[in-house]
Amino acid sequence: MARDIKLGWDVEALNKAYRQGYMAGSMGMDKNRCPYRGEVIIAAWEAGWDDAGQVAAEQPSSDDLFSRIA
């Protein structure tokens, strides 16, 4: 498996950071609460966080759904 020993990350670590960032973003966690250190792994976490926010913005709100039912 490819791993950059100096930077301490590999593809699996980047995927994990992305998934954790996505989950944090979808739960409304602040972006500045990233638990990682190192530019590359932080960028992966933030990409997941940003993607979760974009998906949430594209989906209709639950309030809108209830107003359509009533």
Automatic annotation (TrEMBL):
This is Ribosome modulation factor. GO terms for biological process: regulation of translation. Keywords: Cytoplasm, Translation regulation. Pfam families: RMF.
